[in-house]
Specification:
- The chain contains nine helices and no strands.
- The protein is mainly α.
- The chain has one domain: Orthogonal Bundle (Cytochrome Bc1 Complex, Chain D, domain 2), CATH 1.10.760.
- Helix 2 packs across helix 7 and helix 7 crosses helix 8.
Length: 152
């Protein structure tokens, strides 16, 4: 494999790709990545570092994670959105990621009654793909009395 160098060093993009390749390589396989690393590799590109998303394109998860994770229908939605259901993460890794997201990206206080996602729960929801993503999100959030932010 030929590596293109810029002034004798890898360019920033190439260095990032190299680091990602090392993280995803089979070396050390079998040890699950931390949920934060899974967020960086699988979610942050669209939802941004803090989960705020991109207005009119990618919804913020900051105000919606807590209300959605409080009901079976909302939890099913969080698993079935394309970025979750179609990720290469195992059911357990996705469960840990979703639980981490609720606890670390929510602008809303996480209630003491919050129950972490489980691999079994994720597996039971994941096989069914969600088609009407935006409509389902709006319906679930309106049922929870959480304001739904619309695109400008």
């Amino acid at each position: 494999m030929e590596v293109v160098r810029s002034r004798g060093r890898l360019g920033p993009f190439a260095a990032t790709l190299a680091a990602a390749a090392l993280m995803l390589s089979p070396v050390g396989a079998g040890s699950a990545a931390e949920p934060q690393v899974d967020y960086i590799l699988n979610c942050m590109g669209c939802h941004l570092t803090d989960g705020s998303g991109v207005a009119g394109k990618v919804p913020s998860v900051r105000d919606s994670l807590v209300p959605l994770s409080a009901t079976a229908a909302g939890r099913r939605y969080l698993v079935q959105v394309p970025g979750s259901s179609q990720s290469r993460l195992s059911n357990l890794e996705l469960a840990r990621l979703l639980s981490w997201m609720v606890r670390n990206l929510s602008a809303v206080a996480v209630p003491a009654s919050f129950v972490d996602f489980t691999g079994e729960e994720v597996g039971s929801y994941r096989a069914t793909r969600l088609v009407a993503v935006a409509e389902t999100r709006a319906r679930l959030l309106s049922n929870s009395n959480t304001p739904v932010r619309t695109a400008p």
